[in-house]
Amino acid sequence: MYLIVAALLEAGKYNDASLQISLIKAILNDNGADFLTGVQLIQELKFSSANQYFKEPYMDSLIDFRILNFDELLESL
After folding, report:
1. Domain range holding 45?
2. How many C-beta neighbours within 10 Å does residue 50 have?
3. Which of 46 and 43 is assigned the larger pLDDT?
4. What radius of gyration, in Å, describes the C-alpha atoms of the chain?
């Protein structure tokens, strides 16, 4: 399920990724799904909403993510 989320986020299919994250939360009862929700909100540039999902570090090794142009993003804020 995590790989599906990663693929959907990479493809820009945020609504489908959100659905998969909700399934992870419901079926697997995994707190890492909150972190993924935060990453998704950052991709949608919803920084104020994303902050609440980063209460715990993401400790799972199933997903590797990157932030492209992070320095430029920070400078633009």
Report:
1. 2-76
2. 17
3. 46
4. 12
CA distance 43 to 38: 9
Distance of alpha carbon 43 from alpha carbon 73, whole angstroms: 11
CA-wise closest residue to 37 among 69, 5, 64, 13: 5
pLDDT, tens digit, 9 for 90 and up, residues 6-39? 888 788 888 898 888 888 888 887 777 777 778 7
Q: Amino acid identity, residue 71?
A: D
Domain count, the chain: 1
Does the structure show a pLDDT above 70 at 77? no
Structure-block tokens of residue 64: 């590797």
